[in-house]
Amino acid sequence: MNTFKKEERLCSKKLIEELFHNGSSFLLYPLRIVWLKNSLPIKIPAQVVINVSKRRFKRAVDRNLIKRRIRESYRLNKSENLYHFLNENSTQLLLGIHYIGKEIATFNVIDKKLKLVLVKLRQNCLTDHS
RNA sequence: AAAGCAAGCCGUUCUAUCGCUGUUCAUUCUAAAUGGAGAGAGGAAAGUCCGGGCAACAUAGAGCAUCCUGCUUUCUAACGGAAAGGAUCCGGUUUACGGAGACGGAAAGUGCCACAGAAAAAAAACUACCUUAUGCGUUAUGCGAAUAAGGAAAAGGUGAAAACGUGAGGUAAGAGCCCACGGCUUUGAAUGGCGACAUUUAGAGCGGUAAACCCCAGGAGUUGAAAGACCAAAUAGGCUAACGCAUGUAGGGCUGCUCGUCCGAAGUUAGUGGGUAGGUCGUUAGAUCUCUGCAGUAAUGCAGAGACUGGAUAAAUGAUAGAAAUUCCGAUUUAAUCGGGAUACAGAACCCGGCUUACAGGCUUGUUUUUAUA
Predict the structure, then answer these.
(1) Which fold has domain A6-124?
(2) pTM above 0.90, yes or no
């Protein structure tokens, strides 16, 4: 159901480079999203990479905590809010999520924001398509 | 009992739902998927400060430079770590005992010693002191002050430190100049100790600073798992063979042109070396941990028995909800109840041994003080 397997994560160096060079982005505090339509080698609607900068959070524990919260929220929301839509339009996405807040947000805040992000992402995809 | 100090140990738990990374078993035709079972961060995983394993490269031998270490003995794979001891300094009831640390050499040489002070090191004379000379005052072979030359570190005050301290002698005044006692350094001898060193004795001597250069003794090849080993798609290009083309063709170079001469395809198929993305190994069973016995003051060693799958790689070990535990605050206040908080420091990245630093709260042992009781 709400799985989050390795195929759904963005691991390839090449694709990551392509995403950050050519992708378009928008800001929805405390998240910054980079996205790019692309054809993937496997049958997965989207691959995602989550990033928390070392400059903002010096301790590894804090970075891990934020990453885990974002990942968990993405895992719970993706199939309902994103995969369904992508499958209908038969597109594949590369997705980068940066955390740019200065303090560690609670799960509730992150979850709410990520839902808004996915909604906005769908709108952007549609306008880009047309 | 409370508080302080020191050492050692522990460092939240359970349930539900949804996930993540390995392992193993079963099922389906391999691939993969599904299901079951079981495992999954630390005392510091941190800082990356020492040491070692491991790996690659380098390497005749010796020396210089550079860097590191620096009381002794022992332990250890090794260490800048540890244990036991020695000397020094500090505290103390000056016995006992406790604490501290870059603890070789200042008698190889060079340098430096702020401010203050006369002077900070082969000495030096500001005040005061002593002698001599000069002229002056006074009744005066004396006394007094002045000037000049010399003596003198004894007195003054300065300083972190003032030429070893105290006393007696000595002298014009003085000085380890001489003597007695004492302190320290160093050399020789004797005794004790594996040794650092201690005690006794004889001689020589007497500012500090080596975290200044330096001297002495010992040590160090360089780079780190992004080390290194292996497999290897697609695309492009390389090589080989066959077909194809050719009595060496199309085409190109030399030339102003011709002749001549030199080079010589494209394409198709098959094979192949290197190598990129990517993947596998390295990579987790080890100087391992626990218990017992023996040896040793101890660090530690030896013997026996038992135990043990974290292994990620844009980087797993989680999220949410509820309950419990510990503790703090407030209220009602005998106990207890209710409400509200807090639960630290911190996340493996090849692996070990140390060191250092961070840390809510709790436990144990020792010790000191205070109070209460006997």
Answers:
(1) Ribosomal Protein S5; domain 2 (3.30.230)
(2) no
pLDDT computed for residue A99 by the predictor: 85
The dihedral formed by the CA atoms of A84, A2, A37 and A43, expressed in degrees to the nearest 10: -90
The two three-digit tokens of residue A89, written as one number = 């339009």
Q: How many CB atoms lie under 10 A from the CB of residue A8?
A: 18
In chain A, positions 61-120 with C-beta closer than 7 Å to nucleic chain B are 61, 64-65, 67-69, 72, 75-76, 106-108
CA A61 to chain centre: 21
ipTM of this complex > 0.90?
A: no
Q: What are phi and psi of A5, to 5 degrees?
A: -90, 175
Give the domain ranges of chain A: 6-124
